[in-house]
């Protein structure tokens, strides 16, 4: 069970947010032309820090949340202006996680990678309306999933103790049998078929125009 830690120093965090927006709203076009992809995450302490002992900081709230959201869309619009000037097809989306906006991203791609992110998230049969201000963007509902296979059970020698192995095996087998787990089969180039068990993590909306 994850324990949430209290966030302190909000004024300092607001300054971090302002700096993060200023440093990321200008898209590096030379790098983009070379790599054909770019993205920006919410690289703001303490959000995104590595969790320790099953504890992490709670999702942003209040003014902190608003500043992050406003920053994401400011970056998006600056990038869009620059991408339009390239005069070629491009992918540009806000990946929006309303339950935890510290997970939001602005993602873009050009050239051979304009369809690269089409299968990043699972597209369910049923739609969900975007729950907040649409900001004149078109929004598509998706689901972020965590994928496991039987190979993730591993072997006892891969763990520090038999108990660690048994706990991991029990957790994976429980997830595999869960009625809400999505099951799919995929084959590789050699024809080997792997069964994937996909567990829902977050609702996510992809916004752009």
Description:
- The protein is globular and about 50 Å long.
- It has two domains: 3-120, no CATH class; 148-195, no CATH class.
- Strands 2, 4, 5, 6, 7 and 8 form a six-stranded antiparallel β-sheet that branches.
- The protein is of the alpha+beta class.
- The mean pLDDT is 93.
- Helix content is 30%, strand content 27%.
- Helix 1 runs parallel beside helix 3 (62-86).
List the helices and strands and how they pair.
Layout: E1 3-5, H1 10-24, H2 29-35, E2 37-41, E3 55-57, H3 62-86, E4 90-96, E5 105-110, E6 138-148, H4 162-177, E7 182-187, E8 193-208
Parallel strand pairs: 1-3
Antiparallel strand pairs: 2-5, 4-5, 4-8, 6-8, 7-8
Number of domains: 2
| SSE class | alpha+beta
- Spans of at least 5 consecutive residues whose pLDDT stays below 50 are none
Average of pLDDT: 93
Which percent bin holds the helix content?
A: 25-40%
Give the CA-based shape: globular
Share of β-strand residues: 25-35%
Gyration radius (Cα, Å) is 20 Å
Tell me the major beta sheet: 6 strands, antiparallel
Number of helices in the DSSP assignment: 4
Order of helices and strands: EHHEEHEEEHEE
- The separation of the N and C termini measures 39 Å
Number of strands: 8
Question: What tags apply to this protein structure?
Answer:
alpha+beta, 209 residues, 4 helices, single chain
Report a brief summary of the structure:
The protein is α+β, with helices and mostly antiparallel strands. About 30% of the residues lie in helices and about 25% in strands.
